[in-house]
Amino acid sequence: MEPKLENEYVQSGQQAFYYLEKAADQLHTGALYLLAAIYLTGDGLKKDMASALWCFHKASERGHAGAAIVYGSLLLRGVQLPESVTKLYKTASKSSGSAVLDPVEMAKEQFQIAAKAGCELGFKWLQRLEEEEKRLLTE
């Protein structure tokens, strides 16, 4: 049984997902974030980590703090990046001269995006990574 939606505009979860996809196609950051969360959890559909990561990446790229935190956390957990996302990084890295995809550095970039947006959790993650780097250097 499909959950009852208390909304006069959207009549079903399927219709809501349709509109969410349409907004994400227009790169609306909130829609990208929500769609990524749906793909990540498999809420109402099959889990799709590749699509979740792509949506988190795109939302983060446009400054969505929540997407940046989740995406950075997933990178630190060692999730395998799909080719659609690694291509985006490789294109960006050609201009900077760096070809290696370091998950810790990539996560740090995400937390910087969140911190720049004023997200306290972004600052905390950056502090934690800095402390861990210092600890590793003193061992």
TrEMBL record:
Residues in coiled coil: none
Output the superkingdom of the source species. Eukaryota
Q: Which InterPro entries match?
A: Sel1-like, TPR-like_helical_dom_sf
SMART domains referenced in this protein's UniProt entry, alphabetically: SEL1 (SM00671)
* UniProt-listed Pfam families: Sel1
Q: What is this protein called?
A: ERAD-associated E3 ubiquitin-protein ligase component HRD3A
